[in-house]
Structures
1.
Amino acid sequence: MKRKLTLKLIAKELDVSISTVSKALRDSAEISEDTRQKIKAFAKLYNYKPNNIALSLKNRKTRTIGIIIPQIVHHFFTTVIRGIEQMAREHNYNVIITLSNNDFDKEVLNMELLANGSTDGFIVSLAKETLHKDDFRHLTEAIDQGMPVVMFDRIVDEIPCDKVLIDDREGAKMGVRHLLKTGCRKIAIITTEDYVTIGRLRTKGYIEALESYGIKIEKDHILKLDNIDHCEGECNKKIKNFLKGKDIDGLFTVNELFAVTAAKYLNEFGKNMPNDVSIVSFSDGELSKHFIPSLTTVSQHGELMGRKAAELLINKLERPEDEVEEYTTAYIDTTLIERESTKKIKN
Amino acid sequence: MKRKLTLKLIAKELDVSISTVSKALRDSAEISEDTRQKIKAFAKLYNYKPNNIALSLKNRKTRTIGIIIPQIVHHFFTTVIRGIEQMAREHNYNVIITLSNNDFDKEVLNMELLANGSTDGFIVSLAKETLHKDDFRHLTEAIDQGMPVVMFDRIVDEIPCDKVLIDDREGAKMGVRHLLKTGCRKIAIITTEDYVTIGRLRTKGYIEALESYGIKIEKDHILKLDNIDHCEGECNKKIKNFLKGKDIDGLFTVNELFAVTAAKYLNEFGKNMPNDVSIVSFSDGELSKHFIPSLTTVSQHGELMGRKAAELLINKLERPEDEVEEYTTAYIDTTLIERESTKKIKN
DNA sequence: TTTTCCTACGAAAACGTTGTATTCTTAATA
DNA sequence: TATTAAGAATACAACGTTTTCGTAGGAAAA
């Protein structure tokens, strides 16, 4: 349990000053070849590594990116994290992840904690409760203090900062259009209440797609659920009731979970997929891929979002002091991944 | 873009010394009631928060736990992280997560990086490549330097440190026994090569369960695959060939992915689950829950593992200097979660 | 011999804290 | 009146770096 090696210890050991050691290790020309070699050899032998914390303090830079997300047991978020991590690593940044559990207070706490010197900037996806509460002081405060912030996925328009989004409206439109192209005309949607931005936008895309085909929107073809991340008990029941005896030939859902839950009940009702009912789901994940039938999805490319978010943040962190403030909103393209839950398009 | 408030700034503003400010804020009796109130009011007004980095440097403690895992897009690992995060938060610790991508070099790099003052200790699940290479110098080095290390799930016995495991052998035994109890007698297993500890142990459990029922082990009932985390292309083919025309009535797999992949082919071969073939899979996740039929699984309670790992680490971090070194290996119980892919036990 | 200029190193400050030691008042005691 | 005690504030060192500035000593130039 020996103490970590520091410049001071090396200096004492080799009987030179701390400055000399520091300079030698950084290959300063001020130090003679001899001394430099001696010091470097010693440092290497005993595996000296500069202390990160001390460096952070000195440079007032941590080279650390803070991520604040609602939850981690969630395929989409993990892919985003993977993207962020990649990009960060490529630029020699570290990553700290904190979870808000969709809780407003915890989100605020996490931000304060990370803002106290631990990170140089944030990548945030807002907690459901925060969106609901419409209280963003913690964000504006961080920004005011000069902390660059990048929001992704669950964002709020008013905050002046970089944003990374997918075009939820376009994505949903593409998904629903695919159902239309394969011949579906009675298409239902399972989505979220409107205060969840992504749910609202995806619903909008659904509506626009139908309208572009001149199809009237039926209110009872739309099911809005409370939560976008879980679906248990009550939620299951709502989906079951919604589908029971409904005369539809297509279903669009804003996430995988709603899709597989719906599929389960459709199965029970003796419907065949894709022949009786075709399904397209937003969010491409493990469930869609391995479900039987495998689900056609609108992939949101979380990894790319993560990479983009990290890129924007790093740009901000490394821009020259005097550069003018400018905020970007980047859109990541969605892709339709065709699988077994939809019919082939006829030529 | 105003500068962050520091003790120094407050001191200048209120025309007192830095020490006075520090003491006032920490409610030292040395400072008069008057001054104390004045300083605290000012600090509160301008939302002063002590700088974490400076504190870390001063205390030579970061109150940060480093997590090093092979990958994050993985349900089990995310549940473990959630557990660690919970426990950490409860004890006022932060969490830094780094990914090795199952790459030995990256694992070493991450450890070195985090060891340079960023964290007080590690929670590690080893990269596949590390296990394969059998090179653990980075671990022993960290431990030698006084960094507490806790390993979980993908561990190696020789390293002296705390460990959190599930009893893979027992868990597999329980799963296979369940198949036996529901009447299966011709049970196959899809597992990994033996150098993956968890695969080896689960295979062992499978064998022991069969032996306890006096059933002979058939070599061609055992399929060993290379990778435990992915299953694509080549791997799919192997599973398909393995199952094709095989006369079995039960199947045990060491993870969900193998299970659903197998289920897909069994479906294709016209087998009904659970009537023709029953399936039990290790690792309880989203796939098992939502698959049709939903899968009976051996749940490994990742969250509990995470909590336990964090608890062990925090204990080490906060034990008195002179306490004797002692290493614990904690076992987290597995649970059988009965679903639709197995038959009911007859009374 | 004196001055100038390198070379090779060291001292010290700074980053933001905290805790120990010290100083300076003022009031109480002998 | 001189001494002491307390109360209230400050100085300083330390955590581990980097960097600016300073300087000793010797060689070259005048």
2.
Amino acid sequence: MDLYIPELLKELLPKEVLAQCRAQHFEKGEQLFHQGKKPEYMFFIVSGEAILTRTSNHGEATTLQRCKGGFLSEASLLSDAYHCDAIATQSGQAITLPIKSLRDALTDSKFSLKWVQLLSKEIMRLRTQSERLSLKDIRSKLIHLIETEGKQGVLTLQSDYKSMASEIGVTHEALYRTMTTLEKEGVLKKLPNCLELLQTKK
Amino acid sequence: MDLYIPELLKELLPKEVLAQCRAQHFEKGEQLFHQGKKPEYMFFIVSGEAILTRTSNHGEATTLQRCKGGFLSEASLLSDAYHCDAIATQSGQAITLPIKSLRDALTDSKFSLKWVQLLSKEIMRLRTQSERLSLKDIRSKLIHLIETEGKQGVLTLQSDYKSMASEIGVTHEALYRTMTTLEKEGVLKKLPNCLELLQTKK
DNA sequence: CGTACTTTTGAATCGCATCAAATCTGGTGG
DNA sequence: CCACCAGATTTGATGCGATTCAAAAGTACG
């Protein structure tokens, strides 16, 4: 049994929970959990990609979250039912943890503190994302993305430009066009798997 | 000392923390806390309105959150520094709690569980908000808003249409126009301080 | 009664979505 | 090794919907 557990988890979880970790392989297209179902396991994505989606009353599906690493649905730890579906968009590996033991572990104040920290961080990330989505033009969105998600003005691509486009809420065509425009203006530089924002003085 | 404490807080907080609650009046325009400063107090808005804003590198200010009741910055409980400013947009009352005692209270597993629940709820709300902001046309955004934030297809206005417009990331002019269009189509009904979504079969 | 703000309508413009299609890419199997 | 396929990337043309700027009408408040 070659169970690889990321450092992050070893750091975060109490021994009792760590002992319950299991590896699970998932295929592209596989559904990890269903909306309305009772959460049994918490998923920690190690590789591959999964998304959270919800189908509205009118039958349209929208993506709530794209996850390429980390916990898939932190907010469901105490829920009686999932509020969305989880579907793998790229095959990969996940670590599963029984919800029950995670909940029990919350009585461990060392762990609960870390979990609060985890959730808080996600809230801040989501607020920033909402801020970005409120911006009117793609230029601003892209620059905002690089400034907030990148380091020193350099953003490393998590996947491809297509999913990046949907993350900032625009079509991929429009994103491509904006990128070439910004490049011509000398504001942006496309590197392999990276986007660099060049300093425009002031 | 007529310190009014909302039921929600009495329910949530341990006695030790409740004892430390103080009422604070704030005026429109007042700044409740500053970006970069160390959090000293947690604010619970009772009346009035406050917003979280952040000024980007380029000097533009954007609204991260509009708060008309409840905790103003739950995510900052464990932060060393605020990541945004809080400014009152309407005069009102707040309850302040010393951050320190709140943090200490997290060792109380009954409280930390509730706090985790609080944060989780906010995460789900934010995800739904992001989902809404990703919608392309105002029609969909408005309908999505009523469906997710309202009850039985009826949304009670939290403030005015202008701030509602900025919440869904559109100009108020466009929102007004969309509302009248939807009303003409018989999809929407404007009630005093309410918006009702009429059932379009299927 | 005046001031400030929201609500509402109008007109012009522009950016983005949309649809289409070509090119490029990596991966698969013959 | 090449043919092939699915998907990403890129460019083009068109139309719609939202922004923008302007201004009028309504409303709340001191």
